[in-house]
Amino acid sequence: MITRNDLAWWLGLAGDPSGAVDAFRTLLPDLVRVLGPDHPRTLTTRNNLAWWQGAAGDPNGALAALHGVYLDRLRVLGPDHPHTMITRGSLAYWTAMAGDPDAAITACEALLADRLRVLGSDHPHTRANRCALPKPYPTTRRTTRPPSGTEDHDSRLP
Fold first, then answer.
1. Contact, 40 vs 83, CB < 8 A?
2. What predicted TM-score, i.e. pTM, was given to this entire model?
3. What is the rounded average pLDDT of the residues 119-147?
4. How confident is the model over 28-56, as a mean pLDDT?
5. Residues contacting residue 111 through CB under 8 Å, at least 6 positions apart
6. What value does the mean pLDDT of the chain take?
7. What is the CATH number of domain 2-156?
8. Among candidates 52, 45, 80, 84, which has minimal Cα distance to 67?
9. How far is the C-alpha of 157 from the C-alpha of 131, rounded, in Å?
10. For residues 82 and 56, is the Cβ–Cβ distance under 8 A?
11. Mean pLDDT across the stretch 66-92?
12. CA-CA-CA-CA torsion for 56, 89, 65, 32, nearest 10 degrees?
């Protein structure tokens, strides 16, 4: 099943997001049957399915699916688990892509603060968070200032 997950992901990376969605949708019932609905690998597959659903042109569907994954990861893994934080990052990204970049920026800033607190500044996920902040929102015309202490997120990372 790991290989099927990898194949589905690579389909998306190769330019076939709809094929990735189909492959993840085919894999998911098998994971639920064999591992259960709350197994971390099952939750990862749900997260991946939602990501490629957005990439296939359905950002609102991705958001709805990711919200469910987030609630389940929060319940099963807790708020500070790296996989829960990955889903928060995906939620922020697809929030921007669905047309609410200010909410996405706020979510990304909160996620960065939590990653710094839990993982530290040298962890790859914290560094990726720093790099991801501007990329999904290149045309954002933010009219409000970020919360105090978050506007200088780059200075907190080496």
1. yes
2. 0.81
3. 59
4. 97
5. 85, 88, 89, 92, 129
6. 84
7. 1.25.40.10
8. 84
9. 11
10. no
11. 96
12. 100
